[in-house]
Amino acid sequence: MGSPGPATMSLAGLGTAFGFRPSLGYLLGIIAGTTAVLFMIATGVTTLVLAQPLLVTALTILAGIYILYLAWKIATAPVGPLALRSDHPPAFIPGFSLAIANPKAFAAIGAVYASHTLVADNLTVDAVYKLVALTLVIVIVNTVWLAFGATFSRVLKNPVVGRAANILFATLMVLSVGWALILEYIIV
After folding, report:
1. Which residues contact 101 (CB under 8 A, 6 or more apart)?
2. Where does residue 112 fall: left (phi above 0), alpha (psi -120 to 50 degrees), or beta otherwise?
3. Is the Cβ–Cβ distance between 171 and 9 less than 8 Å?
4. CA angle 112, 3, 63 (to 5 degrees)
5. Which SS3 state, helix, strand or coil, does residue 77 take?
6. Using one digit for the tens of pLDDT, what is the confidence trace for 137-166?
7. In whole angstroms, how far apart are CA 31 and each of 22, 43, 50, 136, 185?
8. SS3 label, residue 64
9. In terms of Cα–Cα distance, which of 39, 26, 42, 44 is closest to 97?
């Protein structure tokens, strides 16, 4: 599915900033939202949404604002050995919202879903197999990104290094969104 997007970068950043367990609600939101995107693609609902340019623009703007807010939370999260890791990490709804409003998720999942046929002679069974396989991938990939960030945080006991890592994750998240927007709206 290509390079990391805003959801995966936010999971790594939140894992680093807050730890694995405090970020589980957000992870479940990302998983549920990304799975909802998968169902919207599988059922054709995305065609209806994408046919409304004003709605797409509004969702993109809202997602961009939330990404900037989330990047700020990650960059300014407590660091060091005495940092309180449970200092209000984002929960289910923000994760779900980001996943639903993530244009890269629609593009990547849509490309994978449409480009492969698993059962050629039965479209229903093919759709079910794709849904199960891609949902499993969604769960595994997103959990690994959160675990990566949380594991990485254990290495960052030095407050200066921890702050630099938080800022790096926040910056990479903003850059991934910027790159996706450039690809979507400028390089058409």
Report:
1. 59, 60, 62, 63, 66
2. alpha
3. no
4. 85
5. coil
6. 999 999 999 998 888 777 776 788 878 888
7. 16, 18, 22, 10, 26
8. helix
9. 26
